[in-house]
Amino acid sequence: MRTRAVLIAGAFAIMLVCCGGFLFYITLSEPFLPDRDEALPMPAGLTGEVEATSWRNCGSGTCSWRVTVRSTSGASSAQVLQQVRKHLEDQHGWRLDSDGSACRGKSFIDMREVCVQTYVTGTDDVIVHLSGHRAIM
Length: 137
Known about the structure:
This protein is an alpha+beta fold. It has helices at residues 2-28, 77-92, and strands at residues 46-50, 57-59, 62-71, 101-105, 113-120, 126-133. It has two helices and six strands; from the N terminus they run αβββαβββ. This is Acetylornithine deacetylase/succinyl-diaminopimelate desuccinylase-like protein. The chain crosses the membrane at residues 6-26.
């Protein structure tokens, strides 16, 4: 009876190690492309255009994409940036810092990180940049 319990415990330990390694590989080893619903759709009065050249941009442990946001009512880039940041916080749960950036875990189980950054370019375009990173242990 005792031998059987030891064998069952050993089999369970082997299975845990194998499955644990597989789960580690799946959840931590590869960067990912963040879902569009991390930032889109934009609120009324703003349009968001995903830049075709940025879609599926991956390398060095990060995948990312960018959205150029414009006003449909002629608002300035500073006003658009303020609207975008409020939208990301209120509708998508982001807690942006004073620079308009934030990172958070993808999920409770998936330890990889998704980040958002908002800024105005030199040509007054408002950009939302989303990136998915492999977990750093």
